[in-house]
Amino acid sequence: METAALIVVLVILLALFFDFTNGFHDTANAMATPIATGALKPRTAVLLAAVLNLVGAFLSTEVSKTISGGIVREDQIGHGILPSLIFAGLIGAITWNMLTWLLGLPSSSSHALFGGLIGATLVGVGLSGIDFGVVLSKVVLPALIAPVTAGIIAFAVTKIAYAITRRYDEKPDGRDGFRWGQIFTSSLVALAHGTNDAQKTMGVITLALITVGWQSGAHHEPQLWVIIACALTIALGTYLGGWRIIRTLGKGLTDVKPAQGFSAETSTAATILASSALGFALSTTQVASGSVIGSGLGRRGSTVRWRTAGRIALGWILTLPAAGGVGALAAVLVVWLGGWGVFIDAVLAVILIMAMFLRSRRNAVTAHNAFSEVAASGHAVEVPDAPPPTPRQRRVQRARKAEKRAAREEGR
User: Which H/E stretch holds residue 382?
Assistant: First the structure.
């Protein structure tokens, strides 16, 4: 029992570290577009996001229950090995999170967590340890549907925003006012991120507590100290800022204009908040990326650069199996060596994480240079500097030309 308790403590610490990486990895979800459009300064943006992540973590626990009492069938797994498997799964999630952070790739921290847990459980227990019905309904289907839905909403909102602000008399269109609106909409996204993503760590810790009898398995509601710890940790990670990913999402996807940013954030916040209420463990990154692409397509004359969009989609697709593979490898050591396997996993994880962190220092991306250049990924949506005229604008132009011709004829 003492060994199991020690492993649970390690799981809690590792889960909180994952929560921290989730914060700095996903800061871009809320704040990339308002920084890109100049609505908020970088440091102000991440501070605001951190505070709202903290608040959002207290709003709901439905996603936490999906993690702690849905994906993994704890009743099918011996409580002696389950904490070790959770530990192995967390190593898979954190390793993938750190790698994609190093590469500046906006992958899904949520799916890294799911993949790590599923991979470790499959090695340690087999297919019986996973509730694939819950995985399909609460993870896979939302992952496919949510980004597309968010993109469609963002596309429609962008079209409406440009339509209602379009001017035909060559006067200012007033679209810069959307920068002020972005402060509100980006705040909603940060709030939604805290509501959805912090709960995933709460669910992992709750599951670990249940396995050693520190919490009753009759309910899966996270304890208050778990909520507070996860909220503070994700807020701290958010404040430190994932500048590499901010640069890719804010400038690498599309040249974001204020009206687009407002539309993308409105769509992202609405999609995530609705899904959190239903217990869907969404990827905030996927939803935000879908919204940014949809808002880019909402501008006249835009085209998709499929190579960049494909690169980002590839990161989404690889996340579950890649994190699952690392989690499975970590679980092999746990199954073979027991407590020593946990120790070896921990040492290897520290070495890998430190190596990636030191590698990142060679080409550091900070608040000062996050937008100094377009990310290597280029633009997923290409928009011409001068969008083609609308049908009404063409009619107005023809009418003006006719008036000028008539005036010249009268002058003769």
Answer: strand 381-382
What is d(CA 28, CA 43) in angstroms, rounded to the nearest whole number?
Answer: 12
Phi, psi (deg, nearest 5) at residue 382: -100, 125
Question: Can you state the angle between helices 82-103 and 339-360, rounded to 10 degrees?
Answer: 10
Whether residue 109 contacts residue 197, with contact meaning beta carbons closer than 8 Å, is answered with yes
Q: Return the DSSP state at 301.
A: T
Q: Whose CA is closest to 178, among 322, 316, 39? A: 39
The first and second tokens of residue 132, run together, are 């694939």
Q: Which two tokens stand for residue 309?
A: 């969009």
Q: Could you give the residue ranges of the DSSP H alpha helices within 57-177? A: 62-66, 82-103, 109-124, 132-134, 141-165
pTM beyond 0.85, yes or no = no
Does residue 383 sit in helix, strand or coil? coil
Strand segments, DSSP code E, in 279-331 are 303-304
Residue whose tokens read 């990142």 = 360
Tell me the two tokens of residue 13: 């610490």
Helix or strand or coil: residue 280? coil
Is 238 within 8 Å of 57 (Cβ atoms)?
A: no
Q: Which two tokens stand for residue 372?
A: 């100094």
Query: Could you give the angle at which helices 82-103 and 2-37 cross, rounded to 10 degrees?
Result: 20
Contacts of 362 (CB under 8 A, 6+ apart): none
For residue 303, the cross-strand partners are 382
pLDDT of residue 374: 27
Spatial CB neighbours of 56, under 8 Å, sequence gap ≥ 6: 190, 191, 192, 193, 194, 195, 196, 198
pLDDT of residue 364: 56
CB 278 within 8 A of CB 62: yes
Residue 378's pLDDT is what?
Answer: 32
- 249 DSSP assignment: I
Residue 29, classified by CB atoms within 10 Å of its CB into exposed (0-12), middle (13-18) or buried (19+), is buried
